[in-house]
Amino acid sequence: MPDQGNDDQQKTVKLQSAEPDERVFEVPRAIADMSVTIRHMLIDVGEMDHPIPLSNVSGKILEKVIKYCEYHHENPEPADDKKDEKKTDDISPWDETFCNVDQATLFELILAANYLDIKSLLDLTCKTVAKMIKGKTPEQIRKTFNIKNDFTPEEEQQVKKENAWCEEH
User: CA triplet 80, 30, 38: central angle to 5 degrees?
Assistant: First the structure.
């Protein structure tokens, strides 16, 4: 009897991005399975002739997500029990280049990784944002991310006072 698990890996899955650029991508099942969301859809529904609609992911972002999954499927990271997920300086050169995009794209990648439940991509994109914030003052962070300061000077002083412990080294 043939190995059903191996059979699944030879199959392809069609994924349909959200409007307005609604595109269909055909990917190997092994790549699609890197998304827990898609894997569960395929388990629940079984084989489908029509594409799986991904209403929260644009074509541009889905294309990047697929590129990420293909690369990491072909180049898996070695299991490292001591790997600290909170470190921001352990990003591989390929991943760093992958995340070298404008802020809007980076935040769309975070949303897509979360929606598709691709933990490694979510960790990577969040680490990238953390690196952008690291060592900056609140004012610099506001400028970097174009965040309006809606605190009155009095409220800002109160927050600084309440969080003075953060500044202690």
Answer: 100
